[in-house]
Amino acid sequence: MKFNIQSKLLLTRLSAVSKVISSKNAYAILDNFLFELDHSTLTVTGSDMETRLTTTMEVQDAEGSGSFAIDVKKLMDLLKTLPDTALSFEIDDNTLQSVIKYINGEFKIMAFAGDEYPEKSAQENVNTLKLKPKTIINGLQSSLFAVGTDDMHPQFMGIYWDIKPDMIVFVASDSHKLVRFRQTGIEPGIEKSFILPTKPASILMGIIDKNSEEDVQLTIDDGSATFETNEYTLSCRFINGRYPNYNSVIPENNPYSVFIDRLTFLNALRRVSVFASVGGMIKVSLKSNNMLLSTQDLDHSTSANETLQCEYDGPEMSVGFKNTEIIDVVNNIGSETIYLKLIDPARAGIFLPGEQEAGADLLVLQMPMML
Predict the structure, then answer these.
(1) Of 83, 116, 149, which residue constitutes the final position of a domain?
(2) What is the reported pTM?
(3) How far apart (Å, rounded) are the C-alpha atoms in residues 293 and 361?
């Protein structure tokens, strides 16, 4: 087999595919990229058995067809040091000795038989729908930061897709905070739900162009999903388990609203947090059109407070939030202003963007700390 390809193109595509590959694989063959040449079409695959990412490229001067696997680390280390130049790959069909050439050099590496690479599982009982890239990216960006990391609760270690005939709801929670992002104005036409693990969700954000007009095809079966773009195909297994009823934990009526500039609020939180203990609390004290942020670290004799102007006409109230969590919430709401809706210091606060995008409905719930 022989083919030519530009090094920059190959590096760009392999960099994306390499993010799927685990540093500790159960099978040695998974430490390699799978290359499949079919006339002038080159397909490259990476997998960790749970997630599989494939990219397809056109190559020049191709001869022969077949498959082979090459070590990920060696090939990536080589490509990262090369200039943008034409590369020639020559693979001996019998010995799998592989020669990579460019204008100033030649590199030899032993490949492995492509048929040793695990095949993709067949999908059964499938539903297929087409989604705008913006729909997927907005849902993932809004919710990914809230995904849990506790493997004692695996159902929280992914983003819950609740697909309805007239909308998709993206939900994520770590049991302290919860994000619900509803994307309306679309018509999936089916009812389906699944939990997408964090790893493929992060990879998906990297391979989808939010501004593209080309639809992403989503194919769902009983245990996995496949996302197809013009350049990539990502397949992944779902997280098993029942996702809790997220609507039941969202308060229906938090009557007291704080309206404030988001960046002003965020920067003040960051300054005050410098003086908080590790995992410490920031107290938010409210009175008429006034917010006081305060914290202290008794072990190191530090404290801080800062006063902000806001719109608030409710009763005087103080509520505590974990410093890192409230910063995370405010940082991940992409609007100029923000609403904080409260009912009392012991119950969850609701954070909302001051301005919602058309067809978007973002809500973030954050549990308080006891004062």
Answers:
(1) 116
(2) 0.93
(3) 28
